[in-house]
Amino acid sequence: MEAEETMECIQEFPEHYKVILDRLNEQREQDQFTDITLIVDGHHFKAHKAVLAACSQFFYKFF
């Protein structure tokens, strides 16, 4: 019986979080996939609910 050959490939992306945050910000700035507008003192801020919920217990419970 032949031994089964396996190959393992590991690739690390230590700066991946920066790429994700940059892309989310670009999408927000271009009003892509934003699904909520926060209004504070008359100023409108487009946002992603998923990002707000991930960063804030208040928004997590609110949504």
Task: Report on the architecture of this protein.
The chain has 63 residues and is of the alpha+beta class. The protein has a domain at 34-63. The protein is 43% helix and 16% strand. It has three helices and two strands. The protein has a two-stranded antiparallel sheet with strand order 1-2. A hairpin with a 2-residue loop joins strand 1 (36-40) and strand 2. It is elongated. GO terms for molecular function: DNA-binding transcription factor activity, RNA polymerase II-specific; RNA polymerase II cis-regulatory region sequence-specific DNA binding; zinc ion binding. It holds the Pfam family BTB. Residues 34-63 form the BTB domain.
- Unreliable stretches (pLDDT < 50, length at least 5) are none
Mean pLDDT: 93
Query: Any idea what the shape is?
Result: elongated
Helix content: 40-55%
Strand order of the largest sheet: 1-2
Number of strands: 2
Query: Biggest sheet: strands, sense, closure?
Result: 2 strands, antiparallel
Order of helices and strands: HEEHH
Radius of gyration: 20 Å
Oligomer: single chain
- Amino-to-carboxy terminus distance: 57 Å
Number of helices: 3
Strand content: 15-25%
Helix/strand-derived category reads alpha+beta
